[in-house]
Every structure is written in structure tokens, then in C-alpha cells.
Amino acid sequence: MLEYVIRRTLQLIVVFFIFLVSSYLLFNAIPGNAFSNLLLNPTLPPDAYEQVLATYGLDKPLFERLQLYIINFFKGDFGYSYKFFPKTPIELIAERLPRTLMLFSIVNIVAFYTGFLIGKILAWRRGSRSETWITITSVFSYTVFYPWFALMMLWVFGYKLGWLPIGKFLYPEKWYDAPFDSDVVFTSMIKFTIAISFLQFLAYLATRGIESLNLRKYIRFSSLLLIITGSYFYWNSSNMIIQKPYAMDIAYHMILPVIVVTIVAFAGTALLTRTTMMEVLKEDYILTARAKGISQKRIRDRHAARTALLPVVTSFIFTIVTIIDGSVLTEQIFSWPGMGQLLLQSVLEEDIPVAMATFSFVGIFALIAHFVADISYSYLDPRIRIKSQG
Amino acid sequence: MSELNEQDIKKRLRRESFKKNWNLFKQSRLGMVGLYIVIFFLFLALLQPMLFITGIWNKGVYDPVVGYEPIKETLLVVDCPKSNEYPTEKYDSFYDCPARGEISRKTIFNEPNLKAGDYYEAFIQPAPPSSRHLLGTDSLGRDVFSQIMEGSQVAFVLGLLSATLGVGISTLLGTIAAFFGGRIDTYLMRQSDLILMLPTLPLLFIISAFAELKVWHLAVVLGVLGGLGGSVITIKSQALQVKVKPFVDSARITGGSNMKILFSHVLPNVAPLALLFMVFSVTGAIASESVLSFLGLLNIDMSWGIMIYIAQTDGFIFSGLRYWWLILPAGLAVTLLAGGFYLVGRGLDDVFNPRLRKR
């Protein structure tokens, strides 16, 4: 096992190195560079452009630049952004990441729960009319042309009804005299969300062993109420009351993106849950449970759904990996200045240090997640374990 | 003689299994709906060249890219009230004037002598649906229905080509990885890790920046990316299960070579999953093409994504339902065709995965 881990780690480093080199070459294959548009200015002195290139080291040959970049990368120096000059890519990522995480962690959690619930019902009501309609709806939202759908929703809720803001993540005029920047609020909102979901998860774990389904439902419901009142007091406490209006502003801007992305994202989980659940329902122990005379609801929730949860959770973990990748389009449409927009802008403007930093951030994220998944699989599944040793 | 018999039997068996599978597929109603949708769009895609060849449609008028027909409409010239005079008797708000069939006098420049109450003949560019243009025309006077047909040709070529290419690559590589194991397996798995690490959409942006992407190129790029990525891992895990089945061992005992076992025993058993993958990846390819065209990054003359892109850049998307024929058909076509392929895939899933069937 240890040997396997070590071998995988070595392979991981090699893959990452190839990834770095190939993406650097890819960025340099784009014609022009980040400062090409300076040439459009006819009054620019002829040597000024060359001087700018020399300042940023772009006049060196490609191979030398690549070498420098790789060496500096492993030293932990990612250079400076071309477009936001004094800032480093790390600063930019630290600024943008909380916004993306805030939006998409909520989306993923909501989408996962609704998807799992709906998938469970779909598999259970197989063949009924409601199943057909729910399936059609989820297939529609799974395959809907996403930018088109998002624009339609923006038109309905943002423009026609005027309930929700169109784009941006805050009203700048409300923030003129704010004593802190938005990232402080984002960080405390993320902490709050994590704490809440952790508490809810704890409540779920604690009530798992309760036999009576009704009692369990009441206890879970009251724990939810308790958490809601607790969070009300938390946001009105002396520390947080300064941040409260600003947090409300951000939350108001978050409603529409969250709804739209959830509608698009829940269907994948729902359809997957339906498939796995239907496979589970064919198992012998479900038949045994039926024969024992256990109530239908209990079979659904405790015997079938729990087993069906495993592959769904696995796919959920892989969804988390693709958060930043998937946020590109959403953030572009809702003009939400997060990681996705940073990634897109830096690629389009050939801001190579930032683009490389974001690419490698996404890459490391994905690589580590796959690594952990592989290791835990081989730990859980003896068949893979034996193969890896042989 | 006996050889011929054997072939006959083989043929009959194949026909019978096809019939059985077809009956199973027919049982899933949504799968049939998906099939009908796909056939409908295939019909649309094939209909357009037919109409051009038979001369029912004139190329100058109905061509999806360069066609044009001047459609004239008589409009009533009105004087719009000033913005502080609303609401008036006729108009509730600023946005209601000019209403349908009317034109504000201020916007006419070529005939300054017209007064309110006169009639004015204008070319209308996004013309509403009529008997000549079933879905109206777009802002450049091109027939929207013809564009939809052209778009479905693009979608079929792109979707089928990239899905076939991708699934071909991933099935071959996945089976090889499972069958030979060792270094080849390690190499292929790390290669798919590498592909999975790259964020898809930005990668396509980069590629479209240094290469002018046409439909064929995009199909190849999407196919190769999809084929080397995650699907290799899934196909490999399926092939691993096939590899340990007894019939592979018996084939080996009877002296089958590696190649023979790989191609005639393992591959056919992975094929159903591969077909399933193919149908699902058509959905993905259609969506990717539309997204890229929607962002204006492709060098394609006409597609559904470009139709929405044009509607958006011309500012019709926030005009709501007044210009519905510019917004709804293209978006619905993408959604429906992708959904149709998805439903067909689900129907096939029911056929190939016996545990999903009804009792």
C-alpha cells in the first residue's frame, strides 16, 4: 500500500510538471502578447513598446522564459500580473476565490440535496405519471442550453419583474463608507455557511439511530429551527451587526445565480440517484425487507436510499473539483467577479502569470482530488488493492 | 455448405437479438420520445438541401447566411408624447410607444414631410412569422427556419463525428489499459489525469485563439479531448470486469492470441457501454458547440449558438417576447436535440443494463 502511494505521488509530480510545461506553451501559442494593443497607439515612441516587453521579460526567447518560469514556480514565485501590475497572482486568487466558493458551495449543497430527494422519489414511483413528468423536467433542466436559460431567467426576474438585480455581486453605492472590503464579509459568510452545514450534519448524525421515523422527523425539524434562530442571534450580535447590511446586500445579489445554477445542476444528481437507486431496489435484501413487512417508507429511506447514496456522493466529490471550471460561464453571464472570470479574462488578455497560476490552482485541486479518490478506492476495494501490488 | 449455414445462423441470431433489443427499447416511452425528437431534427437537416435542389426554396431568399428578402410593411406614423406626459389614453408607459404597426415620426429621416396619421412603408428586418417565412426573419432579413435547419446539420455533423471519434479512442485505450495493465495502464491513466486537469472552456478558448475553428476542427478537438479524458477510466473499469470473466480464460486456454481475445472477446462486451457513452457525449458536444458559438469564438457561418449570439449582440434578448422568433427557436432546438439524444441514451441504458428494467 505504501509503495503504491509513493509511486502514485511520483507519477503525480511528473504529470504536474508536464501540465505546467504544456499549458505554458499553450498560452504562448496564442498570437500576440498582453501588450500588443499598445501598438495601436500611433503616438507611442518606437522603442517604448520594446521597453515594456523588456520590463516584463517578454523579449527573452521562449525556452528561456519557460525555464525561468518553471524554476520560479517551484520556488514559490509566480511573478506579477501584467494587467493588474503591482498585484501578484496569489493576491488576485485570494481576492477572487471566496466569492466563487461562497456562490458555488451553496449551489452545490442545495443542488445535491434536492437532486438526491427527487431522484429517490423518481426511482420509487417508477412507472407512474408523476415520474414521467418529473423526469421530463429534470432532463430538460439537465440538457437545457445553459447561457440561453440564464439569460431568460435574468430577463424574467431581473428585467421584467424587477425583483432581483441584473449582474454584479453588490451595489457599489452601498459600500462607499464601508469600514472593510467585501472579502471580509465574504469570509465571514463562508465561515457562517460552513458552521451551519456542519451543525446540520451533526444533527443528522445524532438522529440517525432513532427508530421512529416520525420522531426523527420532528427532532430534525426542530434542530433546523434552532439553527435558524441561532443564526439570527449570531448576525445581530455586537460583532456581526456592522457586517449585517453588507452581507444582506451580497446575499440579495446571490439569489438569482443560486436559483439558476441549482435548477441546472440538480438534475444530474437526480438522474444519477434514480439509476443507482433502481439498481439497489433489485437487490435481494430489499425483497427480504419487503417480506419482513417493513413499511414502504422505511425501505425507501433506510434500506435503499442509503446504499444508493455512495456512488452519488462520489460523483458529488468530482463535481466539487470542477467548481472553478464550471464557474466560468456562470460568472460571465451574471458578471460575478470570481475565479471563473479571472481565469477567462487572464486567458483572453494573455495575462500569462495569472492564467498560469489559476490553471495550476485548478490543476492541483483536480489532481489531489483524483489522487485521494484513487487511494481511498484502492483502500476500500480489495480487488484494486491486489492489482496495484501485483 | 456447412460454412454458409454457420453464417446464416449468425445472421439470424444477430437479427433476433436486434429485434429483442428493439422491443426492449420500445418499452421505454421516454426513449421513444427522444428517438422521435432526433428523427425530427434529422428530417429538418435533410429537408433543407432537398428544398434547395428541387427549387422550392430560392437560394437568394432562403440561404441561411446570405439570403435576404425585403419585407415591406405599412406603418401608421404617430407622434409619441414626451416622457413626462405618460400615461396617456393610448400608451401606458414610455415603452409602449410606438406600438405594433406604428412608427414614431422622429425616427423617419428620409421623408420629412410626413405627418402623424399618414402611412409609411418600411422594411422590417426582424420580420414576424408569415406564410413565406415560417419563423420570421432575423435582423439581417435572413430566414430563421432555414437557419434552424442549417444549425441542425451542424449539430448532427459535429455531435456524431466528435462522439464517434471520442468513444472510438476511449474504448480502444480503455480496453488496452485494462487488458495489458502495467506500464501501458499507468501511462494511459496519467494521460487522462492530465486532460482532466485542464479546465475545458478556457482550453477551448486558447485553441480557438490560435486556430480558426471550423465545424470539423471543433469536432476533432472535442472528440480527442473527450476520448482521452474521463471516459477512458470508466471504460477501463468496465473492461476490467469483462477481463476476469471465465470465457476470456477459456479463450486463452484454447490458444487465442492476445489480439484475438482483445478484439473478439473483450471489445464486443465493452461495446454496449461505449455506445451509451457515445449517445451521451453527443449531448455534451452539441452543448459545447453552442456555448463556444454563443461566446463568438468559432469560425462557423451559422449554428444555433450563433443565432443566439446574434440575437444577444443585437440586443433582442432583453426585448422579451416581442421578438420571440429570434430567441426561442434556437434555444429550444439546442435543448430539445440534446435532450432527445439524452433520452435515447437512457432508453439504451434500460436495454443494456438488465437491472434497470421493469420486472
What is the strand tally of chain B?
3
Name the poorly predicted regions of chain B: none
Q: How many helical stretches of chain A?
A: 15
Q: Note the gap between the termini of chain A.
A: 11 Å
Give the class of chain B from helix and strand content and strand pairing.
mainly alpha
Shape of chain B: elongated
- Major sheet details of chain A: none
Give the low-pLDDT segments of chain A: 384-390
Give the helices and strands of chain B as they follow along the chain.
HHHEEEHHHHHHHHH
Any idea what the shape of chain A is?
A: globular
Report helical residue fraction of chain B: 55-70%
Q: Taking all residues together, what is the mean pLDDT of chain A?
A: 83
Strand pairing plus helix content of chain A: what structural class?
mainly alpha
Percent of residues in beta strands of chain A: under 5%
Beta-strand content bin of chain B: under 5%
Oligomerization category of the chains in this entry: heterodimer
Describe the 3D structure.
The complex is a heterodimer of chains A (390) and B (359). By secondary structure, chain A is an all-alpha fold. Chain A is 76% helix and 0% strand. Chain A is built from 15 helices and no strands. Chain A is globular. The C terminus of chain A is likely disordered. Chain B is mainly alpha-helical. In chain B, helix 1 crosses helix 12, helix 4 packs parallel to helix 12 and helix 10 runs antiparallel to helix 12. Chain B is elongated.
